[in-house]
Amino acid sequence: MIAVIGAGNWGRNLVRTLSGLNVLAAVAEASEGLRTKLAEDYPDVDLYSDYNALLNSDEVKAVTIATPAPTHHAVAKAFLEAGKDVFVEKPMTMTADEAEDLVKIAENNDRILMVGHLLMYQPAIGRIKALIEEGVIGDVFTIHQERKKLGRARNVENVLWSFGVHDVAVLLHLVGSAPTEVNAFGHSGLQPELGIEDDVYLHLDFANGVQAHLHNSWLWPENRRCLTIVGSKGVLVYNEIEQTVKLHRQSIDSKTLDITNEGEEIVHEGAKQPLEIELSHFVDCIENRSTPISDGRSGLEVIRVLEKAAINK
Which CATH superfamily groups domain 120-274+306-312? Predict the structure, then answer.
């Protein structure tokens, strides 16, 4: 059985989904008001004001953590050392050193450590990964991502840490390796005295020649969530809002520079609930002692990219 640590804005979704999967054992939430609401909605679930009460619980075999990001390391560490499997929401930690520490603790204690990179569990991403591996668009040249809207500005992390964590995880997943070079350029208009960027361009170079580019902004007039993958034989475009993946059978011959255009087609449409898929995967990993798709080591690589981007921006 699984306990949820933190039932705020996102944690309540974990509570609902785990309850629907019939694996919810308990919830630890500091807010009395939220606990009162949880008691009404989930009368059979044990509620706690302090997660420490669950560390030695025989009933709780694993936890999902949705507390504020700066607390992720301490909370996850406590449960891993207590012998529990851990699912921690993004960002995994606030530094690569903290993330590496969690990975080592999980491995030393033979515990599962999974990071909540939700976008990786969208069926569309799995379809795109398969099409790339099948060579449908040939050699991948560049990957472009956009995630921007008039969104909630933060006063602790910049828009890359707020919006782009899932995107970076997907980039590394699709390419299959960590980047060899990371560069980021940002602009801070709302809070220049804090140096918190509202608009960030991230550029990644990979050893296989692929280049990836990500644009995040919470000062944008339109809601744009798009992934474009340009290959030698075609282009894949994932519209996350419409939940479609379109294959453009278009290319340019590298020798003659002649254009080939054989039209386009939708190769994936619609989506299941990615959170249910993600948490079902966590349950399966617990039961089968298997490595999650978004395991601790992949989460560590994401934090390393974000940390390097902060240094170079």
Answer: Dihydrodipicolinate Reductase; domain 2 (3.30.360.10)
Q: CATH class for domain 2-111?
A: alpha beta
Looking at the chain, list the stretches that DSSP marks H as alpha helix, in order from N- to C-terminal side: 11-20, 32-41, 72-81, 96-108, 123-133, 159-163, 165-175, 274-288, 296-312
**pTM, entire model:** 0.91
CA distances from 97 to 100, 109, 124, 290 (A): 5, 18, 32, 25
Distance from C-alpha of 76 to C-alpha of 211, rounded to nearest angstrom:
33
Asked if residue 171 has pLDDT above 80, the reply is yes
Cβ-based neighbour number of residue 80 at 10 Å? 26
Q: How far apart are CA 217 and CA 199, in angstroms?
A: 4
* DSSP secondary structure letters along 82-107: TT-EEEEESSS-SSHHHHHHHHHHHH
Q: What is the pLDDT of residue 311?
A: 66
Extents of the domains making up the chain? 2-111, 120-274+306-312
Query: How many CB atoms neighbour CB 185 within 10 A?
Result: 13
- Closest to 15 in 3D by CA, of 29, 23, 4, 25: 4
Q: Is the pLDDT of residue 92 over 60?
A: yes
Contact 139, 231 (CB under 8 A): yes
pLDDT digits (tens, 9 = 90+) for 229-280: 999 999 999 999 999 999 999 999 999 999 999 999 999 998 778 999 999 9
Cβ-contact 216, 151 below 8 angstroms: no
